[in-house]
């Protein structure tokens, strides 16, 4: 056999070698072992790590705000990050506590009927009632977890909110034992 | 023989690899959703303020070495007014274009801070119609200043107490 190969012309030998390579490649392709077991475990590890990281960064952003035409935050140069606290939102049209509407707002004013002392009053009755309930709930949680009730609120207000309305809201929050406020703003460099 | 073969096939099925493809589909979808949410997030910050609180009065024997500053900054229709224990300072008028002069306010507060370096509290007050945007900008001007000597930001009066009705 070896002598037969030895007698072949270089052209024929090259053709035979080519055919052999094609056959070997075809055999390789038809071999199911090579394609069947794609090991996706490292990829799964990687994706799980990314998922955990993203979930963590997603939950660490304490406050989620839906900004629309009725709520645009003012810019500020503050460097303090938002912290988890009960959100009180003042939009152009409505006052909300934890996302639930408390009182309507018309032209930057709360309806005098919803205030204990009428038009000149600061005490917004439904806001104090709801925040009172929230404060009782927070105190219970603080008792169970052994923490201190710090009476903190996040105030999310539209940038056109008049100072009078802001003080009315803060006064009412104060009546429900919330005395520390975090005004939520957009971070800017200027 | 047939029985043995069936048993062998069953055992092979039981010990086979778990199909991870559906799990991977779910994970990929969640990742895409979370990435999209993270990208769309706006950079948020907070400005801390508080309302005045009442406390029981301390003993009347000890006298403070330095009189308290009791700085009050009021945003009015014509500009800023600063007042302290010593009296009311000349007002800081608005700029010709109608904006409030925040730079002049910071400069004035820097002068006061040099006299009362330990003081960090200030009371904020404003007209009823002052927009929230102006309130936040004034609080920014009250919080820090840039030192000319070392070009570093230094604290002015970051502990702000809101006045006007919050009693």
Structure, described:
The complex is a heterodimer of chains A (190) and B (167). Chain A is of the alpha/beta class. Chain A has 2 domains: 2-60, no CATH class; 75-187, 2-Layer Sandwich (Nucleotidyltransferase, domain 5), CATH 3.30.420. Chain A contains 6 helices and 7 strands; from the N terminus they run H-H-H-H-E-E-E-E-E-H-E-H-E. Chain A has a 7-stranded mixed sheet. Chain A starts with a helix and ends with a strand. Chain B has 167 residues and is an alpha/beta fold. Helix content of chain B is 35%, strand content 22%. In chain B, a hairpin with a 3-residue loop joins strand 2 (72-75) and strand 3. In chain B, helix 3 runs parallel beside helix 4. Classes of the chains: A alpha/beta (190), B alpha/beta (167). Chains A and B meet through helix 4, strand 1, helix 6 and strand 7 of A and helix 2, strand 1 and helix 4 of B.
Sheet-strand content of chain B, in percent, reads 15-25%
Query: How much helix is in the residues of chain B?
Result: 25-40%
**Sequence stretches where pLDDT stays below 50 over 5 or more residues of chain B:** none
E-strand count of chain A: 7
Instruction: Please name the CATH architecture of the largest domain in chain A.
Output: 2-Layer Sandwich
What structural category characterises the helix and strand content of chain B?
alpha/beta
What letter string, H or E per element, gives the SSE order of chain A? HHHHEEEEEHEHE
Overall tally of structural domains of chain A: 2
- How many separate domains make up the residues of chain B? 2
Instruction: Name the poorly predicted regions of chain A.
Output: none
Roughly how many Å apart are the termini of chain A? 87 Å
Query: Any idea of the CATH class of the largest domain in chain B?
Result: Alpha Beta
What Rg of chain A do the Cα atoms give?
35 Å
CATH class of the largest domain in chain A: Alpha Beta
From the 3D structure, determine the CATH topology of the largest domain in chain B.
Nucleotidyltransferase, domain 5
- The main sheet of chain A orders its strands as 1-7-6-2-3-4-5
Mean pLDDT score of chain B: 78
The pair of chains with the biggest contact is: A-B, 53 and 45 residues
Our estimate of the beta-strand percent of chain A is 15-25%
- The tally of helices of chain A reads 6
Average per-residue pLDDT of chain A, rounded, comes to: 84
